[in-house]
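Teaching note: in complex prediction, the entire set of molecules is handled at once rather than each chain in isolation. The prompt given to students was simply: 'Predict the structure of this complex.' The entities are:
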Amino acid sequence: MNWKWDLFFDSFPIIVKGLKVTISLTIICYIVSLLLGFVWVFFQRQPIKPLKWLMGWVMEFIRSTPPLVQLFFLYYAWPTIPYIGVTLEPFTCAIIGLGLHMSTYIGEVYRSGIESIDKGQWEAATALNFTTGQKWKKIILPQAIPPIIPMLGNYFIILFKEVPLASTVGVLGILALANNYGAAHFRYLEAITVVALLFLILSYPSSLIINWIEKKVNRRFDKDLALKDS
Amino acid sequence: MTKPIVQYKDVHKSFGDFEVLKGIDLNIAPAEKICIIGPSGSGKTTIIRMLMTLEEPTSGDIIVDGTNLWKMEKNGRMARANEKHLRQVRSDIGMVFQHFNLFPHMTILKNCMVAPINVKGLSKAEAQKDAEEMLEKVGLKEHMHKYPSQLSGGQKQRVAMARALVMKPRIMLFDEVTSALDPELVGEVLEVIRDIANEGKTAMVLVTHEMDFALEVADRVLFLDEGVIAERGTASEVIEHSENERLQEFLKRFRSSNGNGSN
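The expected output is the structure of the full assembly:
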């Protein structure tokens, strides 16, 4: 098999058109998972034990099943369930499926951040008579969020690389377009290479940005620690 | 005797199967200074943590200025207090912790402003004026734009006091506030407590291991042992002239371990 530049250049503009879908799907899924992550944390921290266990199991279930299976379930199986079944648009289906899957990981990241806050911070906030909402807003979250920003960034890149799964339920992102192009020309090499190249071009700078943020955040915390000992 | 600002009535507290406090009865007069001494694990800290609403008593009542702290009337019956009730009663009480618990993400000044602004609804300018005044009083005004991590332990503890005092509590609780400090930093913290005590407006309950300090500032000293108040009286009665054997034992052990005569 030999490489054909003309096919590469011919397919490139066609496939790039899918970037808009791929990127917007990534961003929307990410926002959904950032918000839903808070919901998981809320259920784990509210006082009603059975509800806590139930949601814990649901979360575990979502995390232990492959996202591809979840997408297939949502797209093909759910509409056939009586009463609650709804037929979903491919794009909506991908948002729900991938967003929900990612949110269980994001929820764990939030939890680790919140649990890293010393009990004394809660107690001082109580002693100053803050409301529960104020404790979260003024005291806990401002300390819990900065250290987990690098982790949240990594999950963004992971999510970006999972988004091509959406092509399996008919979302026309770059992978689906390349696949179509390949089928039409009986050649996949150049088109799929374009897809890989696009992911590389987008992921690599993103991970550089995240490394940079990580260093910045860590430096701040190192400084605090160094001063604490002195 | 004037009407007490705080009353403990047969207060018990258990952690699991372990009963830490076995019936505490105590009246605190307005502006009274009380020191609680006793061996570790005797429940000293638990007494004041229940008043700060950080621990709920297993049984008994704590009355703050005539209001039951942990119980409220609901449909004609006494029920467990809700957060709204607790917040109302709690506004009279302030606390300083052993490990300072300053907010590390805020400057010293912000630490002292965040509660007055959000809880008391003061304007930013008012809150800043109060905070600066209080930081001046504890001798840290020139550091007010620094972060807690840039201060020494003694300075942190003084900030923690300023932060509690700007809320103008009528009852101040001090939970072993010098225990986490290097010996040479203890003096500056006690100095501030002495100033608050001398102003005489605030009732103070100090859980402490500083016997000499207790002798100096306390109107009354309580010796807590195995979950009960085993001895109570004026500072000199309890620390210098008590016949209670367990107390003697405690003080002796205490003095020998503190033999260098700190403070």
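Point out the following to students. The first helix of chain A runs from residue 5 to 16. Chain A is about 80% helix and 0% strand.
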